Amino acid sequence: RGKDLQLVLGLTPFIHLYNNGTLHSIDTHIKIQKDGWVNDGKKYHFNENSHHLEKCVSYTNNKLDGPTIYYYDNGLVEHIEQYSEGEKCGTWKYFNNQGKLIRNVYY
Question: What are phi and psi of 101, to 5 degrees?
Fold first, then answer.
């Protein structure tokens, strides 16, 4: 219980593993309130095979909020999505695997 409380208070990230024991994701966004869990912060997802960062997702009050960034295995940004209170917004940017901007989509 002490470890659970430490995780909830954000003192230590919550780490998820794939069945093979490799890193799946790190949650720095889970908080607890009297009525349950709340996603509020960032979650980092990793590729099961390459172990590279696949995406970073931002939450506020259980909703996507702010940038969600996807990465190529070479570490460069694949695309960036923007959200506000769970709704698509702003400019979504798409890049090739060499980092060149190839497309903008506006919301």
Answer: -65, 125
Tell how strand 66-71 and strand 77-84 pair up: antiparallel
Q: Using alpha carbons, select from 35, 37, 69, 72 the residue that is nearest to residue 55.
A: 69
Q: Which of 96, 93, 95, 97 is nearest to 105 (CA)?
A: 93
Instruction: Write out pLDDT tens, residues 25-73.
Output: 888 766 656 666 667 788 899 988 888 999 999 988 889 999 999 999 9
- For residues 89 and 86, give the distance between their C-alpha atoms in angstroms, rounded to a whole number: 9
Diameter of the chain measured on Cα atoms: 49
Which amino acid makes up residue 76? L
Report long-range pairs for 26-31 (Cβ below 8 Å, ≥24 apart): 29/58, 29/59
Q: The tokens of 62 are what?
A: 């259980």
User: Distance between CA atoms of 75 and 35, rounded to whole angstroms?
Assistant: 38
